[in-house]
Specification:
Elements: E1 2-9, E2 12-14, E3 20-22, E4 28-34, E5 39-40, E6 50-55, E7 59-64, E8 74-76, E9 80-85, E10 91-96
Length: about 100
């Protein structure tokens, strides 16, 4: 079975060279089954400001109050991850893609 892994962070840290990384430890983590139909996460934690989304398969994602992912949504490659800003209470939806 395919999954997306959501790691929620409250802050970012500036590192040597000027880059930013999420400040560990995360404040919440979720694992969401990723199928051929759009599947939503639970609402993000009240302190969440950034999320790292990782996937073990090709998928598309949407972020919002009641998101619906389609194969036309933002695509993620297999075994990839992204870190984005996200407001507390938002949800992440995913669907398998090719």
């Amino acid at each position: 079975m395919a999954f997306i892994y959501i790691t929620e962070y409250q802050a970012m840290l500036k590192i040597e060279g000027g880059g930013l990384v999420p400040q560990e430890p995360p404040i919440a983590q979720q694992t969401v089954a990723n199928t051929g139909a759009t599947t939503q996460s639970a609402a993000l934690n009240g302190g969440t400001q950034f999320v790292r989304i990782a996937t073990d398969t090709v998928c598309s994602i949407e972020i919002g109050a009641n998101p619906v992912a389609t194969t036309a949504s933002r695509r993620m490659a297999a075994n990839s991850e992204i870190t984005v800003g996200a407001r507390a209470g938002m949800k992440i939806a995913a669907i398998l893609n090719t």
